[in-house]
Amino acid sequence: MRQRFRVLLPLLLLLCAFGCQKAPEQQADPRWPVTVREAVIEKIPRRVVTLSPAATDMVVELGYGGRLAGVSDYCETPGALGEPKRCGTALLPDTGAILALSPDLVIASASLPQETAGALSEAGIPLLVIRRADTLDGIIGNYRAIATAMQGEEQGARAAEQLEYFANATLSYLSETVSPALSEGTSAVYLRQMPFVIATGDTLEGKWLSSLGFVNQAESFAGWDYPLSAEPDLNPNYIFCDTSISLADLQGSDYYRRTSAVTNLRVYPLNGLLLERQSPRMFLEWEAVMEAAFPEAFASSQKPSVVLPMEPPPPPEPEEKSWWEKLFNRS
């Protein structure tokens, strides 16, 4: 009996030693928590609710569309993403629908009503507000904020760097191509909605017209409001307008039918939603409309062969490709 105990004792001690050891602690993800504007995000957001089409577009185009659990009533999502739950809007959110999804993050284009904001806070759900930007730096900052919220500071900085490079390269190319093709004093307007919702001097679109060498006829006004009292002076050489406005509409308008742009058929439509939502695709839309207006200038211009850095480090988690990765057929 004693001999058997002597044999078993070392084995029992060894098993006890192994059993008493603490399980190794799971290594914390160094990217979290992260603070983005007013939102403190404790972990990687895998279920996200967006409450505006602009926020949804930004999330999808950064490559995070697969995380969308809910969207606003007015959002359009790619068919590959299925049918995320509709959750109202930033102004009229469906608080119950949002809470039922148990999201890790809610992104809105404006502050939410106090009742909804309080319910999210009580549930421990961070709210990130991404307002429409008035400058290019503001647009880049918005994309940085969303990428940071989704994957941490490093990925946020990388996304901002890529978008800034892309935007500056595209806008510089357009300016270098269009400006030499304009006669001194060539005027233009960007008409978002009939009759006088026009890009004024304080708007991003108005500033872009000026940067290309046009005289923006709404330069001295603000807030997309061209006053009726200034209508006699409204005689642009070019009209760039939303696709909801046709040449026939302008030809039938007492305000526009006699303008130089309409009589000379220099009216060029573009997708105003891309500009309104500040999608990165708006730079390509801006390029396309200028190419339509000045085909000869673009025929002899040298477009940048590389618009974005092509070899950023891969993201920590597998994600849907961003729109620019698809654009350049990156593997």
TrEMBL record:
Similarity-based family: Belongs to the bacterial solute-binding protein 8 family.
Domain Fe/B12 periplasmic-binding stretches: 47-301
Keyword Signal among record annotations: yes
Ranges where the record places region Disordered: 305-331
Protein name from the UniProt record: ABC transporter substrate-binding protein
Biased composition (Basic and acidic residues): 318-331
Superkingdom to which the source organism belongs: Bacteria
Presence of keyword Signal: yes
Swiss-Prot/TrEMBL keywords: Signal
Secretion signal span: 1-22
Residue stretches in coiled coil: none
